[in-house]
Amino acid sequence: MKNGNVCVAEVVAALVVSASVGAQNQAVDIQVVPVQGFNTTQVYMLVGAGANITAQIGDDGVLLVDTGTAQTSDKVLAAIRRITDKPIRYIINTHAHPDHVGGNDAILKAIGGQRTSQGGGGGGIENPNGPLVVAHQNTANLMTEPPNNQPAYPDGAIPKDTFITDNKQIYFNGEGIELWWHGQAHTDGDLLVYFRRSDVIAAGDFLFTDTYPVIDVQAEGGLQGLLNGLNRIVTIAIPRFNQIDGTRIIPGHGYLSNQSDIAELRDMATIVRDRIQYMIQKNMTLAQVKAARPTIDFDPVYGTTTGVWTTDKFIETVYADLKKPRQGPLPKSGLNFGEGGQ
Ligand SMILES: [Zn+2]
Prior knowledge:
Elements: H1 8-24, E1 31-36, E2 43-47, E3 53-58, E4 61-65, H2 73-83, E5 88-92, H3 98-101, H4 104-110, E6 132-136, H5 137-144, E7 161-163, E8 167-172, E9 175-181, E10 191-195, E11 200-202, H6 223-236, E12 248-250, H7 259-281, H8 286-292, H9 299-302, H10 311-323
Parallel strand pairs: 4-5, 5-6, 6-7, 11-12
Antiparallel strand pairs: 1-2, 2-3, 3-4, 8-9, 9-10, 10-11
Helix pairs in contact: 6-7, 7-10
């Protein structure tokens, strides 16, 4: 019998399926999509490495958000070298899944290892000229001790510049960069990365543009943290006109997005949450909830019956998540624009 939990291996498998589809087609290189910046294009989206990679490039060097799969590192480095010969000075990891951090090891080895924020120690390869590898501490923990007995990452690949607070700020290439952590989201370590002057948000796996939100319960993910992150994007992002242009949002998987894309996804996830929560309050079983089809009007856009992250899995996961005992009260029904639950 199925339960509401989605095994991390299944989630990862789903993510890597899309990566390997690209990898099998050797003719497909890493695509470099110029996004925007100030004065000149500063932020790029690299497509084809499993998950999307964000690269911010300027006089100070290169800052990467995520590194893609282990199999695509050579191509990722080659793609960066097509735009700049500056050194990689920062790698920010949004969360611990292998399609986002799998490239850490090979890329760091290729450039001589990472620097630590303390300037020494921390284990692994120490390279005073290497990049700082930044992540929430929960992400480093999940890479050190992955759930379900999956193999740990090599020590040299694990971020050494970690933090345990809700946010961190970096100034690089002439702009402030904000890192916002939302716990219990896609995993328990997810970061949003906001480039303030370029006006770009790297959303990691808060955002899949073509599927229902993916929640890895084995990595302590949860729907409310995910909604908090989506609400934050909607609050920060400003469209230029007709709901297009303005702030650009780079998803973990899918197409470059505008504020309205995120608002639609947020509204859908909030409505589905409210429906399932109402059904739970009516003491409906999982089978009854599924039979009631709480996602029916959204299925043509986000739903699927094939692959791993099916509509059924999404409903099972949300049902189990909402039934979990919590420390605090759930936010009230209705669209939640605040930061409830944090
Ligand atoms: Zn992920």
